[in-house]
Design goal:
Blueprint lengths: L36 E2 L1 H17 L2 H4 L11 H34 L2 E2 L1 H15 L1 H10 L4 H27 L6 H4 L4 H12 L1 H12 L4 H29 L4 H5 L12 E2 L1 H26 L4 H7 L4 H6 L2 H26 L4 E2 H14 L2 H8 L9 H28 L1 H4 L11 H24 L4 H57 L1
Antiparallel strand pairs: 1-2, 3-4
Helix pairs in contact: 1-3, 1-4, 1-12, 3-5, 3-6, 3-10, 3-16, 4-6, 5-6, 6-8, 6-9, 9-10, 12-15, 12-16, 12-17, 15-17, 15-18, 15-20, 15-21, 16-18, 17-18, 18-20, 20-21
């Protein structure tokens, strides 16, 4: 259900509906001597920085040292699970800040020097978040780490609130629909109320971190689910009490609503996603450079100066690197193919995309574990299962994005990608490939544990060829179905003609 246009009157407004206002030309905005400018480059810089910060959150988890002869005992498993849980929470909180940034700059279309500096201050605090997460992951029982993270989140929210106030104080920076509205104060208070909910919860988390740390984590988790929780409670009240939803009655902004159909900038969703995929792929080679360069003294003493012989010991590490890179690259390829057919991204699609990216960000951890095959680790099965689970959830959320888009295909998909379109079957098969293969590899490693390494590497080798063969297979299948359908139609036509001839002869007789 889409929200009304911004030109409609809000509470207390009695103005008649206005005609849609044409978008203003950009060429006239950049007058000589004016500091007003478009926000394209600022948004590109912000998306790149936010995607980097969200992705490097995995580094404290991925660099958890586990000796090859050390099994994943209960204490180590608990440590890894705690770090992974904190990583997912902090990743999602960073993406909440990114989503607020996207929606904020859908309201503010133009910037000046003050807004650019305010955004820069916001980015500076965001770049400090990985350090606070490292403290939280390394010292989970010490309150200072979660206190520092919560304080940073509060400052980020306050800066975004200042951007809102400054934008509405200079209305020429706002989008055209809000400029012509007579209810700008209502819109400003509505946006500020939503933006400041997160900082309030983070402020409470910072206070309770010194008294009861688990409650602080619960409050930080509420930052992620609070908008959806409040929307669900409002929907329940509407259904039970039969009252009209005030948001539906009065809300006239297309952004900063609680609706899952709220439109997001497709271009910024793609830019943020590309940044995450690129950084995850880059982190893999950083680990290769750090851990797989032999010591010169060891090369001289142990391998008699033969660098090639020394590097041969790292062969399985290189295999794990290329396998992980291929997985990340093909998942990006599927993501690219998916959004190639998407015309409009909704808030629900953005949420599913963020969940997929969270598991993509966990692939460096899977690489760290699988690279231990070179050292004959006792944890091969666990490492393979971590890789399969990460790949499965990253791909299944991509499939969920496609399913969500199909539910509202007229608004979200190109005509040729809709149900029954020429690309629909191929897209369905492409999105279903990774979930099926990763799930199959997971269960095969459980049943055939002795061949777990071979099964895992076979999956990594087969997948690229499967993508190449997939289009041929789908085309052949569609051609066979089409020929069968045409034969059945011909039979129906022949039967109808015979019936027509019989009826004609009966009439003559």
């Amino acid at each position: 259900m889409s929200a009304p246009r911004a030109a409609a009157p809000g509470p207390g407004g009695g103005a008649a509906e206005r005609e849609p206002v044409p978008v203003r030309g950009r060429g006239l905005e950049l007058e000589l001597g004016s500091s007003t400018q478009t926000s394209h480059r600022l948004l590109a810089y912000s998306d790149a920085l936010l995607s980097i910060i969200a992705t490097v959150m995995i580094l404290p988890v991925a660099h958890t040292k586990i000796h090859p002869d050390q099994k994943l005992g209960e204490s180590i498993q608990q440590l890894l699970l705690a770090k992974i849980a904190v990583y997912l929470m902090t990743f999602l909180i960073v993406t909440v800040a990114w989503a607020a940034h996207v929606r904020l700059f859908q309201v503010i279309e133009l910037i000046d020097d003050v807004l650019a500096l305010l955004n820069l201050a916001c980015m500076m605090i965001i770049t400090f978040l990985p350090y606070t997460f490292s403290l939280m992951a390394s010292f989970p029982e010490v309150p200072f780490g979660i206190f520092l993270f919560s304080v940073c989140a509060v400052v980020i929210g306050l800066i975004q609130a200042v951007i809102v106030v400054y934008g509405f104080y200079h209305p020429h920076l706002l989008n055209q629909q809000i400029q012509v509205s007579e209810n700008q104060n209502f819109y400003k208070s509505h946006i500020l109320k939503i933006i400041l909910r997160g900082p309030v919860l983070c402020f409470l988390a910072a206070i309770f971190s010194f008294f009861f740390i688990p409650l602080s984590y619960v409050l930080l988790g509420l930052v992620i689910i609070f908008p959806h929780l409040t929307r669900f409670i409002t929907w329940c009240k509407t259904k039970i009490a039969g009252q009209r939803d005030e948001e539906e009655e009065h809300q006239s902004l297309e952004t900063f609503t609680f609706y899952l159909s709220e439109p997001l900038s497709k271009e910024r969703v793609e830019a943020f996603s590309d940044g995450v995929y690129a950084i995850v792929a880059t982190l893999l080679i950083l680990d290769i450079c750090e851990d797989n360069v032999p010591d010169p003294r060891e090369v001289e003493e142990k391998f008699h100066g033969s660098l090639l012989e020394a590097l041969s010991e790292y062969g399985p590490n290189y295999l794990a690197y290329f396998g992980s890179f291929v997985t990340i690259g093909l998942l990006w390829f599927v993501h690219h193919s998916l959004f190639l057919y998407v015309t409009k991204a909704t808030r629900l699609m953005g949420l599913l995309n963020i969940l997929s990216l969270a598991f993509i960000g966990g692939l460096p951890l899977a690489y760290q574990l699988t690279s231990e095959f070179a050292e004959k680790s006792h944890n091969e099965i666990e490492a393979i299962q971590v890789s399969c689970v990460s790949t499965f959830f990253a791909s299944i959320f991509q499939f969920a994005i496609w399913t969500t888009a199909l539910l509202h295909e007229r608004e979200t998909l190109h005509p040729f990608a809709r149900y029954g379109g020429k690309e629909h079957a191929f897209m369905f098969a492409k999105l279903a490939l990774y979930p099926c293969v990763s799930l199959g590899a997971f269960f095969l490693t459980c049943l055939l544990s002795e061949f777990s390494t071979a099964i895992f590497h076979l999956m990594q080798i087969v997948i690229p060829f499967a993508f190449l063969a997939l289009r041929i297979f789908v085309r052949i299948s569609l051609a066979v179905i089409k020929s069968v359908m045409s034969l059945s139609r011909r039979k129906v036509v022949l039967l109808e003609e015979e019936e027509a001839c019989l009826s004609a002869t009966e009439t003559l007789s």
